[in-house]
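Q: A reviewer asked whether we had any structural model of the full assembly, not just the individual parts. We don't, so I'm hoping you can provide one. Inputs are below.
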Amino acid sequence: MMKLSKMSDYAVVMMTLMGADPLANHTATTVAEKSGLTVPTVRKLMKMLSKAGLLNSTRGVNGGYTFAKNPNMINVSEIIEAVDGPIAMTTCLDRTQTTCVMDSHCPTKDRWHVINDAVRTALQAVTLGQFIEPTNPLVRVEFDEECKDNACNV
Amino acid sequence: MMKLSKMSDYAVVMMTLMGADPLANHTATTVAEKSGLTVPTVRKLMKMLSKAGLLNSTRGVNGGYTFAKNPNMINVSEIIEAVDGPIAMTTCLDRTQTTCVMDSHCPTKDRWHVINDAVRTALQAVTLGQFIEPTNPLVRVEFDEECKDNACNV
DNA sequence: CTATATAGAACAAATATTGTCCCATATATA
DNA sequence: TATATATGGGACAATATTTGTTCTATATAG
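A: Here is a predicted structure for the entire assembly that you could use as a starting point for your response.
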């Protein structure tokens, strides 16, 4: 059904919940509680989001995750790609794959990238901030205000 | 990876190959030969495309499939939906599904339809004709010329 | 030194997709 | 009318993918 994976769906939900308090330090445990997802699953996703550079992580006691950038500067495409890898509508656009039944005499090969780009653009156009705002319209203001005098790499 | 299903990918390939001869009668067997896909798979897909109203079918000897409309009037979204069902990025947008872990307290529910629409729009913007044209620039002309005096419901 | 928290990798279970097969129905032709 | 050919519909096993969990390693505050 051309569906987003559950994992990236979860990731967007998690990020949205975290975004309600965009400056806080979030642990896998607290996010699991807020979201209703299990701790192991949240842990797995947090790692991915951190690895992708969307979250900063701190290990050890009092460790956890903070936003690496302003939620308004994070788009949905970034979250999805962090979890599911590059958006590739067809196997031939996925560089990690090599095999294709049709291979060279495939008549559609060249046209897919147009669609692929269109989908990616659509996903890039929506920011995490837009997901958060209905819940908390002050997110952006909060984040930017606080960060003026701090080390946030907005 | 937010990927198209193989089936709908195959369907686009098949339709593209058929589009090289847009007025001809195509059987599952001939399309299987041209595409390199197996006959049972092609049969299954042809049925779906026919049921969706993209192809007209004729049973019995000399039966087969013809385009139900001008390939330029068929968009990629139609082909995908014929095979995979409605484009629903998340489970909560899929009306055939009911269960969702988060259900009512899901913070992202309302925003997804924006993205969903954007993706659908992107897929609607590309026509089958655009897939065919690099192979055969005359498709549109051929189809329309022939249909002027015929029963084609263009 | 201990408790807490993330990093990374490997794995079993659950789910979804694929590909195939069967039988029913329609139709042109001998 | 009998036969060969073609699609229609549904069921199914095999396969692939995704999901969710668990384990061990590493980092750090107190």
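A: Points you may want to mention in the reply: Chain B has one domain: 6-147. The first helix of chain B runs from residue 6 to 19.
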